[in-house]
Known about the structure:
6% strand, Cytochrome Bc1 Complex, Chain D, domain 2, mainly alpha
Amino acid sequence: MKKYIQSIGYVAFLLTSIGVLIKAITVYKNPFSLYENPLVWILIVMLVLVIIVKEHFSFTIQKLQETLQQEKEGVTPEDVDIWEPVKKFFKKWTKTSPIEEEDEIILDHNYDGIKELDNVLPPWWVYLFYATIVFGVVYLIRFEIMGGDNQQMEYEKEVNAAKLALAKYQKNSPNTFDISTASLQTDASILKGGKIIFNTNCASCHAVDGGGGIGPNLTDQNWILGGGFKNVFNTIYNGGRDGKGMIAWSKTLKPKHIQNVASYILSLQGTTPAKPKAPQGDLWKEEVVVKTDSLVVQ
Length: 298
């Protein structure tokens, strides 16, 4: 009776502890944070210790009972095969027949003296095969009959969810800027802000009026890395040519400010600087796309 009470108390402790842990994991924001929820870790340690002590006690009692039974049967410790449990396990899961019993399972036919044994399939292989059948049935029902999401659908859902999360974040954070949406600005106030940035960071190499100095002339039609807003923005953002171009201003300026200064630089096109530097790079001609009802003319 005492043994049953101990077992019931042990099971009740395990179920209660596991229930409390599940409740903590589902309720607390950071359940495994040692500083925020030390009681969770205390419960985990206690649970592990109780299990270890209980199993150690059960194992010790079992070994003691086996020893007493062996003494009762007159079996000495030297006669005990310590690998017997392992052998039983492998025999159970492989169902191999001893060499002495091969005559009972040998088949009648042979080829050139080679004979075949009628061994059964190992249980581990059979159970694994059954598991693949169950998996195949579940997979067939889940994806072919019930129309579950395939990899492409899961990818598209995750991308859309990420876009919604990004849009929400950008909406709540007015200082964020998506460089993929950068475009040429023509508002006077924005160009004025771009001019201030240009005079502070760019005029030392390109001159205040954009005529050029150490850097190239920004008022003519020639560009080293391409003209147009996208090219100018990219050049400022990522820097010029390796080893001899300007630095990447993305480490210093915010993308929104780079957009404004790029717009201001393009507003200098066609102006007449005091001391213009000779053109450098290739002549840039902006492609003009004209859409009509039946054709597109560039």
